[in-house]
Design the sequence.
């Protein structure tokens, strides 16, 4: 709103000192990050007190994990803090006419409401199951479908596949202006913007993969088929990301810190994809308008770092499904919009492996129960982070035999997440 207010003042000829700063994504991203951080820390304290007053505490099942029962009664639904800390800065400093911001805001609200409904049923209706798995999957898939339709039909979601930045740099040097300003002013694009089903993939020369390659048909029917495949992929990615973060949220600060690391990388990718010079240098798709996502992800990261102030071990508040479903949904939507969804198995390796561990545990248990009459386990406990927290029990994978402290598990997962983040960024130059 401040951004649009400044733009309005410029239109009517009112000159306010410093208003030119709002033209720069860097300034608005820093402002969004700082505001989100402050909201999380200062408003978060009040919200935690309110949650405690309402006696909204976590109901813990005794799974035999060290220190587990000490968490009983810890305030939950802290995702409300994260939600406010993301939305408020974006409304203040984001371009609310930008299609990418609109889609991210809508998806954030949607996944927040789904998670809130799940926690509400658990906490207030005393139903430990919350929303059924089917209901959550339907809600996640519905938003994925909505995003897919928007990507298919919105005239504002386009890409420019090849960019020539020589004239841009020449103008910047000659006129002593910033490269970004020159890029905005100079007509240097070789090709017109197009609707495309192309996305980014590592280890290939052009860094591009087109979903139409998966279509068995050509011609008009093939055109419809490639977009159907793309939309299906969007639904799968968003649903998987939302559930992946939800499964990872089982230790103090684990999902929060891991999501913040992913958010930083996605913000960098958005910045690069939305800048004509950077897109040319890295030989990646230039996505007009996607730079605004960097402002959104700055608020995202600021909100999580602020929330980590209270969520780090020992946690004073849990995000609950209100936060975890929302964070995963935002990560999935963001990756789709900047055409980096195929990098998620690497970037979101923590979430990917956590989800995989649950699937392996379930299928192997059912298979062995049907075959031997007794269910057997792959891990001592799933999701994977609990495997390291559980004392040795019969399983295919038993190491470590002794339980590890929760804080150490979380710290090591963060380190792995950082390594994966660096690898993901480095892949932009690996062909």
Sequence:
């Amino acid at each position: 709103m401040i951004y649009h207010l400044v733009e309005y003042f410029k239109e009517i000829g009112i000159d306010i000192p410093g208003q030119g700063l709002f033209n720069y994504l860097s300034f608005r991203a820093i402002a969004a990050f700082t505001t989100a951080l402050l909201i999380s820390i200062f408003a978060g304290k009040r919200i935690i007190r309110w949650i405690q007053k309402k006696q909204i505490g976590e109901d813990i099942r005794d799974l035999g994990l060290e220190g587990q029962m000490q968490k009983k009664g810890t305030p939950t639904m802290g995702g409300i803090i994260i939600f406010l800390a993301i939305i408020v800065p974006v409304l203040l400093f984001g371009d609310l006419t930008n299609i990418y911001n609109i889609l991210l805001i809508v998806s954030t609200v949607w996944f927040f409401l789904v998670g809130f409904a799940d926690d509400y049923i658990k906490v207030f209706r005393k139903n430990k199951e919350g929303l059924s798995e089917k209901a959550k999957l339907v809600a996640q898939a519905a938003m994925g479908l909505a995003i897919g339709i928007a990507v298919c039909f919105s005239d504002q979601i386009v890409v420019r596949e090849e960019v020539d930045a020589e004239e841009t740099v020449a103008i910047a040097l000659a006129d002593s202006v910033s490269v970004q300003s020159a890029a905005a002013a100079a007509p240097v694009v070789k090709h017109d913007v197009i609707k495309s089903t192309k996305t980014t993939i590592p280890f290939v020369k052009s860094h591009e993969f087109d979903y139409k390659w998966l279509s068995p048909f050509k011609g008009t029917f093939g055109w419809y088929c490639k977009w159907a495949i793309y939309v299906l992929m969007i639904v799968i990615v968003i649903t998987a990301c939302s559930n992946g973060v939800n499964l990872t949220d089982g230790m103090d600060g684990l999902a929060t810190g891991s999501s913040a690391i992913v958010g930083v990388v996605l913000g960098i990718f958005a910045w690069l994809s939305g800048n004509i010079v950077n897109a040319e240098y890295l030989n990646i798709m230039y996505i007009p308008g996607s730079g605004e996502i960097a402002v959104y992800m700055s608020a995202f990261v600021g909100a999580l770092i602020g929330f980590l102030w209270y969520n780090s071990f020992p946690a004073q508040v849990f995000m609950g499904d209100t936060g975890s479903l929302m964070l995963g949904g935002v990560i999935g939507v963001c990756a789709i919009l900047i055409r980096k969804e195929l990098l998620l198995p690497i970037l979101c390796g923590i979430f990917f492996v956590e989800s995989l561990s649950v699937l392996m545990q379930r299928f192997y248990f059912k298979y062995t129960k049907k075959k031997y009459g007794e269910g057997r386990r792959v891990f001592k406990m799933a999701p994977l982070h609990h495997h390291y927290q559980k004392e040795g029990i019969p399983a295919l994978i038993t190491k470590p035999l002794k339980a590890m402290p929760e804080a150490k598990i979380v710290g090591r997962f963060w380190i792995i997440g950082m390594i994966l983040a660096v690898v993901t960024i480095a892949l932009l130059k690996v062909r």
Notes: The radius of gyration is 23 Å. The longest strand covers residues 198-200.
